[in-house]
Amino acid sequence: MDIATIIGIVAAFGLMLMAILQGGGVGMFIDVASILIVFGGTAGVALINFPLGDVISALGVAKKTILIKEANTNELIAQLMEFANKARKEGILSLQGSIDTVEDQFLVKALQMAVDGQEPDDLKAMLNTEIDYIQERHSGGAEIFTSLGTISPAMGMVGTLIGLVQMLQNMSDPSSIGPAMAVALLTTFYGAVLANILFNPMAGKLKTRSKTELLQKTVIVEGMESILSGENPRVMEQKLHAYIAPKMRESVFQ
Questions:
Q1: Among 143, 162, 147, which residue's Cα sits nearest to residue 194?
Q2: Which among 179, 149, 150 has a CA at the least distance from the CA of 164?
Q3: Euclidean distance between the first and final Cα of the chain, in Å?
Q4: Distance between CA 136 and CA 247 in Å, rounded?
Q5: Of residues 239, 252, 217, the one with CA closest to residue 110
Q6: What would you report as the CA-atom Rg of the chain, rounded to the nearest whole angstrom?
Q7: Which of 109, 123, 198, 221 could form a disulfide with 118 if both were Cys (CB 3.0 to 4.6 A apart)?
């Protein structure tokens, strides 16, 4: 679970709620017409822009901003080093017994390919192809939320224009000016909140998650290629450490 995301959401909405309560009540910030325009309009435009399946899958992708267990790259390298030492001493087939202890399905696939006798170059090519398609799927999920971050303020502006038109057409009736102005201003408010507190930050978090996950998968590919090639474990570790910052590197030989 990502504590930073939870703290950020609670802080953003909590501070806004405090400001609202100090100036009056929450009720004045709730308008059904504004909600329908912004929320309904954003959902409708998203369905026009993206296939239904992609929009539905984006809801599942959104969980990755909070409910995710990040693997530690140093721990991953240490695990690969363990496999390298075992393969060097007992042979590549000895890794068959280690497959059941691995949680990362990408690493499981890489180990199974190695045990099945794949050549190092073939293994690297096949796994890199899978990484490319994973990156494409991740980019698609982030793109949807980036688009939602663009659509929601636009729908807020549409609601503002609707409210202003209603207000200007009924200037002779003072009682209609207030509700029309509420629609005009609240739609802009809703659109800004959705874009800047939810959609755009979620897209940014998904991109960061994708970079981390792809880096770790690249480490797996390089590590498994080194294992199949019979590379010296020390040389292999130095190669894998190139993917992380120097101050974060932890050697298993120290």
A1: 147
A2: 179
A3: 31
A4: 31
A5: 217
A6: 26
A7: 123
